[in-house]
Amino acid sequence: MMTHYLFSRYWPIIFFILVSTPFASLRAQTDSLTRSYEIQFGSFPNIESGAKSTIGLTSLAFDQVNHVLQQSKYNNVFTRSLNFLGVQFYLGAFAYGTLPHEYFGHYARAQEFGIQPNGYEIFFPSFGGNVPFSIIYETDAIHRQMISAAGPEVTTQIAYEATKTLYSGESVPSYYGMYLLGGKLVDSYIYARNDLDAFVDDPAQYLRDAEDYFAEYNVPNDPVSYLLALAEQYGYYDELINPEDTWATFPADPSVLINDFVRDQRDRIRRAYLLQLLDPAILYVLYGNYRYLVKDELRFKPFMFRVQDVQFMPSIRANLGHLGVENYYDLFVVLPGLSAFNVYYRHGGNQEDQLSGAGIEWRNLSLTNKISLTAQLDYWQDEQARFNGFAMLYYPIAQRWALSGSVGYKSEGSLMGKPFGEELYGYGGLRWQVQYQ
User: Fold this and answer.
1) Among 1-15, 84-98, 130-144, 158-172, where is mean pLDDT lowest?
2) Whole-number pLDDT of residue 167
3) pLDDT tens for residues 178-202?
4) Which helix (H) or strand (E) element contains residue 142?
5) Coil vs helix vs strand at 153
6) Which three-class secondary structure state does DSSP give residue 243?
7) 127 near 191, Cβ under 8 Å?
8) How far apart are CA 194 and CA 221, in angstroms?
9) Which tops the pLDDT comparison, 10 or 168?
10) For residue 78, with 0-12 CB atoms within 10 Å meaning exposed, 13-18 middle and 19 or more buried, which class applies?
């Protein structure tokens, strides 16, 4: 069972960040009233396509509310604040945080490994939710580890998909920075830092504090579940485990679970998420909402560095991989007359094994006057060389509608947003444009 308490304990900190006055050196844009939306359906775990669908559907809802309000006689700072706090922040946190975290993350990843969850719970109107299931230690540790990681992986993927739009060279909606809030701060640094520090520093007190929760669900929160399964994968708990016991069973003295490997990985997770917070894109949480609330501007154009006609911008993301936490160091590029692309370097692991790799994604590259292509190529090295190749085609079926279809193949191992096993995968979907008057 995996539980996610999005915003529940830290909403005062997050609220302060959202309403603080940001820097104001960027250019506001309200020139375009045409927006594209996309939904996709694919093979489990569906993290990448689920992230795109989450952004597509929530963007459609937010844009509709924004434009109706802007054209009404009730459009003022007070009503815009209600829209921001009630729709984009509160309800939005469920739509682009809790729901995809639980469903496209834990639920779908469990089914990918042939594990049937016992349900799907959302704690509305309070924040959070969980996916309960019963498995034993005989189930592969790597599968339990990746199920634990899958929730935060989804919100990180959503933040990544939003960053690709931010650095496409076009203007974006004012609320777009909100998609980065969960994946880069709440569902990563805050969640992992507080959960892991409490467990590693005093595991007995950690279990006492969560006594009622463990009595019902038997498994700790995602970061601790991930860390325990990772250490188990490396044999650190062989003498403590009965394979027929239900996961997770804690010894009478839980301090025996803490060792140098666990402490080291906790520190690596902390550093990886701190590096992710250096990503300047997270400032758009402040800037975009400031422009909307104060200036009543629905769109802005993100800053990118420029050398002659070439625009570029760096970015950082973090993900819980099969060897340990990893960072992806992205460079987003917009070339004149061509579509946008990004390249990345990837590095992470644990104190015994390391992983490194690189990749490229080129989006919406025109093949003919009708067909466009999005393609990905990834390579990484752990104990052996691994790769991923993916291509998606878009074909228009009407003036403002297009169908998409894709196929990919990857080696076994973790790659953010992708299935874990060595297999063919793919998904299809629908893209449409809405013209706002």
Assistant:
1) 1-15
2) 96
3) 999 989 999 999 999 999 999 999 9
4) helix 141-166
5) helix
6) coil
7) no
8) 11
9) 168
10) exposed
